[in-house]
User: Fold this.
Amino acid sequence: MNNREWVLAALQHGQPDRVPYHIRFTQAAQAKMATFYGDPGFLPRLGNCLTILDVESPQSWREVAPDIWEDPYGVRWDRRVDKGIGVVCNQMVTPQTLAEYRFPDPDDPLRYGGYSEVLKDKGDRFVVAYLKFSLYERAWTLVGMENLLTAMVTDEIFVHKLLDRILAYNLRIIENACSYDIDAMMFGDDWGMQTGLQVGPRLWREFIKPRIEAMYGLAKAKGKFVFIHSCGKVDELFPELIECGLDCFNPFQPEVMDVIVVKKQHGGRLSFYGGISTQRTLPYGTVQDVRNEVRRLLDIVGCDGGYIASPAHAIPADAKPENVAAMIEVLQEQ
Assistant:
């Protein structure tokens, strides 16, 4: 079997002859590992099973002031403290300006300009197109998180109109991305905190569920698998996400859910991608702790398919390089 076949077997709940895996790094962690290995070009030798394509052009962001970056939606991100993502520092949309707001062009060929070349040379990788900040996150970045949460209670009509516009925009992106020979659409939308849902299940069902059902349904109609990246403790939603057509959940954080119990409960209908602790084990554990955790996940969560092994998030800067190396060795030595 090759990388794509391992992933397909896992998603179809068969037992691949090895558990597929994928490892991502923050910039700081990647630099530390390059120093640890003495090899700045170590990434292609990891053996990752996925190729992840963005649906935004890398040229779509611009620095408008020192460490202030503007995204293609006009949202400005202050990166003076958080160099990776930043903090939203403006408001693009209000109830009064929603009708006037214009989204970037979903048909802009620059969005998908590199797809053909990557897909021509994809080898045996499983290819995922990734729509980040796909609904709830897109909404709060445009109007402000506090404003959005308040409006969900005080101005539901505005929230529905905003989310409907985001949905229409997203559906066009999905149409375009799925016209290429990709295997899956992945949607990024963080709904959780360490302790549970940010908006609670009632508001999630009112505002989020019908629209993700439409997005997932379009991707499935195009013959693609559906992935979601949603940080935090959101496992109470798994039965409904399965109903909506979800195939694979990420990041599967062991700090907020018992990954072995969750796999037993939902593993026949849902696959999981992540599970290796980036909050505890990689930064604070020993090399043996890492080896034990990764082997346990491969043996138990990887049994009967339904698992893509991975750190629960892009590896953070505080992860110990020797721990990251131990994780990579166990994954590669299957």
About this structure: Residues 20 and 164 are 36 Å apart (CA to CA). The mean pLDDT is 96.
